[in-house]
């Protein structure tokens, strides 16, 4: 169980999860130091760390640099500061003293340390929350202006949610993901250079180019071995993450919302609450770190963690903007015959949206395409036993729309500056209460009048000209208020429509983070549906985020984005490593393709509970040859699924057997397709033999089920035994049919 231990005499706190501890110490100057982040320690063991000699002061350096858990600007500290303010008289330094500490046992345990500036009316609370059953520690700050109107506002230049202090290592390697549109979440591991390595988004969204998480190891960690320190920010707007390596070999990672040069004004009596930044220490390599984050997302972030996501069909690649009711019904019938459980109609169903330059913002069905509204299509989809989903992009507007003509002031804009259009769109200012209220009413009306089960919530445009000319007070607050309004809108819609499920989409993976995941059920990982490219994208995705939220489609060949030709099985098997969807033009698929696709959908449904709710093991990570493979294991270990993918076969080499992970070495496992029986110990050591085709882009799905244990009676008769721990195993419920 998580615990918080406090030694008042030494002003020391130990926050412990099942396998790790984070130790805080308040020094004589009231500076909060990160004393330990690593294996679990008792309070006595943590106190003994105070006997280690503190680093002495060197010329022009403060030994506190790189050691402070709460890291305000001031004094002789010249390294990165996670808390930076400016008072009305121009003073920027902070002198904080601990005013109060409080602990609670709510939902695992929370520690709050409240500091007050020695002179100015500002308090800073640093919050630490331990969740039951995880080594992930959640942190955030609360800043309060405690003065009167006469004191004026405090300008907050930076308020990072957390500064994580790492122990000294033999070296430091930084793992992150980079990318761009259609090439998101590509894993990059590099030696951490000296100085400040800043990763950021200035776009108003999480972005395709980077994602707000980082992992650090000593350069020697592998997929299965080594210590890893990691953190992730739960925020869906602009953000900054600074990994700092000092010449003294002190390393910190500091993360928070916002970006330079945007500031926030804190008025008298007001407070600023930063988003959560969560962190974790793990042993067992990057694989163990990923599995810890996957469990944390499922257990403590997602709104419906026990559901398995349905197999969906999306109409976009089949029709694009050429949408009308009869053709959509025909596609729905073909999708249902394949075994799809959710039919999603994409862009083009509303207003004057016959192309991408008009209609966005007018969320009523196009009367020429849907003369009787959406009801006939929805009813037919439900009659086919599927749920119905709809594409929306609520935060955007086309200048050629009824909404923009009525309210041109509702978009982000500056006076005397052009309004840059991207994708023929402008961004609605959700920070305005009237815009947020209108949007809620419009979407609530759409959902109330139509039996919509699922929204594909898109956001295709970054912020530009991010102004609010008629704002009262600080116009820069729109950068954060827009995100808070988005969160409030999603929360309210879900409360009003509890059966609604939502997919986060932002031109693919442009809005993927722990903040949006608390309000959605899955994420569209990339607009690039090329199966070969998706292997790289999905590998980086899996470093932090679980398969049960990763939308992945099997689409046409040649691929509409890259032109690459890939076999149907390979396309499906790549998509099966996440939430399977189908996005191809079924009108062009032959009867053999449709029949095989139905078989593959059925095979996915047989292992879906393992992929979406099980533990993921990357057996052959990228960079380890042309063969890559992923294993998914049931929580009780009774069954496992393996997806093996070979992009190319070189020199006629045989495919190596795949050593599997975490199986019972004394048990036997039966292949549900072939009936072959394998010993767990042999699968661990020698591996699972592969029977891949000799062609390039070969793939295989293997489903293994543990055989019942067998005892032998004195008569020689063999009697099946029930394996321990499997009787109470809970099967996840299937998605509703309609």
UniProtKB/TrEMBL annotation:
<feature type="domain" description="Glycosyl hydrolase family 36 N-terminal">
    <location>
        <begin position="31"/>
        <end position="259"/>
    </location>
</feature>
<dbReference type="InterPro" id="IPR050985">
    <property type="entry name" value="Alpha-glycosidase_related"/>
</dbReference>
<feature type="binding site">
    <location>
        <begin position="456"/>
        <end position="460"/>
    </location>
    <ligand>
        <name>substrate</name>
    </ligand>
</feature>
<feature type="binding site">
    <location>
        <position position="181"/>
    </location>
    <ligand>
        <name>substrate</name>
    </ligand>
</feature>
<dbReference type="InterPro" id="IPR038417">
    <property type="entry name" value="Alpga-gal_N_sf"/>
</dbReference>
<dbReference type="Pfam" id="PF16875">
    <property type="entry name" value="Glyco_hydro_36N"/>
</dbReference>
<comment type="similarity">
    <text>Belongs to the glycosyl hydrolase.</text>
</comment>
<keyword id="KW-0378">Hydrolase</keyword>
<dbReference type="InterPro" id="IPR031705">
    <property type="entry name" value="Glyco_hydro_36_C"/>
</dbReference>
<dbReference type="GO" id="GO:0016052">
    <property type="term" value="P:carbohydrate catabolic process"/>
</dbReference>
<keyword id="KW-0326">Glycosidase</keyword>
<dbReference type="Pfam" id="PF16874">
    <property type="entry name" value="Glyco_hydro_36C"/>
</dbReference>
<feature type="binding site">
    <location>
        <position position="527"/>
    </location>
    <ligand>
        <name>substrate</name>
    </ligand>
</feature>
<dbReference type="Pfam" id="PF02065">
    <property type="entry name" value="Melibiase"/>
</dbReference>
<feature type="binding site">
    <location>
        <position position="505"/>
    </location>
    <ligand>
        <name>substrate</name>
    </ligand>
</feature>
<dbReference type="InterPro" id="IPR013780">
    <property type="entry name" value="Glyco_hydro_b"/>
</dbReference>
<dbReference type="InterPro" id="IPR017853">
    <property type="entry name" value="GH"/>
</dbReference>
<protein>
    <recommendedName>
        <fullName>Alpha-galactosidase</fullName>
        <ecNumber>3.2.1.22</ecNumber>
    </recommendedName>
</protein>
<dbReference type="GO" id="GO:0004557">
    <property type="term" value="F:alpha-galactosidase activity"/>
</dbReference>
<feature type="region of interest" description="Disordered">
    <location>
        <begin position="709"/>
        <end position="738"/>
    </location>
</feature>
<feature type="active site" description="Proton donor">
    <location>
        <position position="527"/>
    </location>
</feature>
<feature type="active site" description="Nucleophile">
    <location>
        <position position="458"/>
    </location>
</feature>
<feature type="binding site">
    <location>
        <position position="423"/>
    </location>
    <ligand>
        <name>substrate</name>
    </ligand>
</feature>
<feature type="binding site">
    <location>
        <begin position="346"/>
        <end position="347"/>
    </location>
    <ligand>
        <name>substrate</name>
    </ligand>
</feature>
<dbReference type="InterPro" id="IPR013785">
    <property type="entry name" value="Aldolase_TIM"/>
</dbReference>
<dbReference type="InterPro" id="IPR002252">
    <property type="entry name" value="Glyco_hydro_36"/>
</dbReference>
<dbReference type="InterPro" id="IPR031704">
    <property type="entry name" value="Glyco_hydro_36_N"/>
</dbReference>
<feature type="domain" description="Glycosyl hydrolase family 36 C-terminal">
    <location>
        <begin position="628"/>
        <end position="704"/>
    </location>
</feature>
């Amino acid at each position: 169980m998580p615990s918080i231990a406090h030694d008042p005499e030494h002003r020391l706190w130990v926050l412990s999860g099942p396998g790790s501890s984070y130790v805080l110490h308040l020094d004589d100057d009231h500076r909060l130091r990160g004393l330990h982040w690593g294996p679990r320690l008792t309070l006595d063991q943590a106190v003994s760390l105070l006997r280690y000699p503190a680093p002495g002061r060197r010329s022009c350096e403060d030994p506190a640099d790189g050691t402070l858990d709460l890291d305000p600007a001031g004094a002789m500290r010249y390294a990165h500061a996670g808390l930076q303010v400016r008072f009305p008289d121009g003073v920027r330094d902070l002198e904080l003293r601990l005013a109060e500490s409080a602990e609670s046992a709510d939902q695992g345990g929370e520690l709050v340390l409240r500091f007050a500036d020695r002179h100015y009316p500002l308090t800073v609370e640093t919050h630490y929350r331990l969740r039951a059953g995880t080594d992930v520690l959640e942190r955030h700050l609360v800043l309060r202006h405690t003065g009167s109107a006469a004191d004026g506002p405090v300008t907050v230049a930076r308020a990072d949610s957390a500064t994580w202090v790492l122990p000294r290592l033999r070296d430091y390697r930084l793992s992150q993901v980079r990318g761009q549109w259609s090439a998101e979440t590509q894993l990059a591991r590099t030696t951490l250079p000296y100085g400040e390595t800043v990763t950021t988004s200035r776009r108003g969204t999480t972005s395709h180019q980077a994602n707000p998480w980082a992992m650090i190891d000593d350069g020697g960690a592998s997929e299965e071995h080594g210590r890893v320190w990691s953190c992730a920010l739960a925020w869906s707007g602009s953000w900054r993450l600074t990994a700092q390596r000092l010449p003294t070999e002190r390393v910190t990672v500091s993360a928070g919302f916002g970006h330079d040069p945007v500031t926030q004004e804190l008025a008298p009596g007001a407070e600023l609450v930063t988003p959560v930044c969560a962190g974790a220490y793990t042993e067992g390599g990057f694989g163990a770190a990923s599995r810890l984050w996957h469990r944390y997302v499922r257990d403590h972030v997602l709104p419906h963690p026990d559901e398995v996501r349905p197999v969906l069909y999306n109409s976009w690649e089949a029709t694009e903007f050429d949408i009308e009711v009869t053709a959509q019904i025909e596609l729905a019938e073909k999708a249902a015959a394949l075994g799809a459980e959710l039919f999603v109609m994409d862009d083009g169903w509303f207003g004057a949206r016959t192309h991408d330059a008009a209609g966005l913002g007018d969320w009523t069905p196009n009367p020429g395409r849907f003369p009787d509204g959406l009801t006939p299509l929805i009813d037919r989809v439900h009659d086919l036993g599927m749920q119905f989903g709809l594409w929306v992009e609520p935060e955007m507007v086309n200048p050629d729309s009824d909404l923009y003509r009525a309210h041109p002031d509702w978009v982000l804009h500056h006076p005397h500056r052009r309004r840059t259009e991207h994708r023929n769109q402008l961004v609605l200012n959700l920070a305005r209460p009237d815009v947020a209220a209108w949007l809620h009413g419009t979407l609530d009306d759409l959902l109330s009048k139509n039996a919509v089960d699922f929204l594909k919530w898109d956001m295709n445009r970054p912020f530009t000209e991010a102004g609010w000319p008629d704002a009262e007070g600080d116009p820069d607050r729109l950068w954060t208020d827009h995100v808070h309004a988005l969160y409030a809108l999603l929360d309210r819609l879900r409360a009003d429509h509890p059966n609604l499920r939502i997919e986060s989409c932002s031109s693919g993976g442009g809005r993927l983070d722990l903040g949006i995941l608390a309000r959605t059920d899955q994420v569209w990982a990339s607009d690039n549906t090329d199966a070969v490219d998706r292997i790289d994208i999905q590998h980086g995705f899996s470093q932090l985020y679980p398969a049960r939220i990763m939308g992945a489609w099997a689409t046409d060949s040649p691929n509409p984005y890259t032109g690459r030709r890939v076999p149907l099985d390979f396309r499906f098997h790549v998509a099966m490593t996440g939430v399977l969807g189908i996005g191809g033009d079924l009108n062009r698929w032959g009867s053999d393709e449709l029949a095989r696709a139905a078989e593959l959908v059925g095979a996915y449904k047989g292992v879906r509970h393992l992929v979406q709710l099980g533990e993921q093991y990357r057996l052959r990570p990228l960079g380890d040859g042309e063969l890559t493979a992923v294993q998914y294991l049931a929580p009780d270990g009774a069954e496992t699924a393996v997806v093996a993918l070979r992009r190319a076969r070189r020199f006629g080499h045989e495919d190596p057997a795949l050593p599997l992970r975490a199986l019972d070495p004394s048990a036997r496992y039966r292949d549900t397709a072939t009936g072959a029986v394998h010993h767990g110990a042999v699968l661990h050591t020698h591996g699972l033999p592969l029977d891949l085709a000799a062609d390039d882009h070969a793939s295989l799905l293997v489903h293994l089920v543990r055989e019942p244990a067998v005892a032998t009676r004195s008569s020689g008769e063999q009697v099946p035994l029930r394996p321990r721990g499997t009787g109470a195993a809970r099967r996840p419920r299937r998605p509703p049919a309609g």
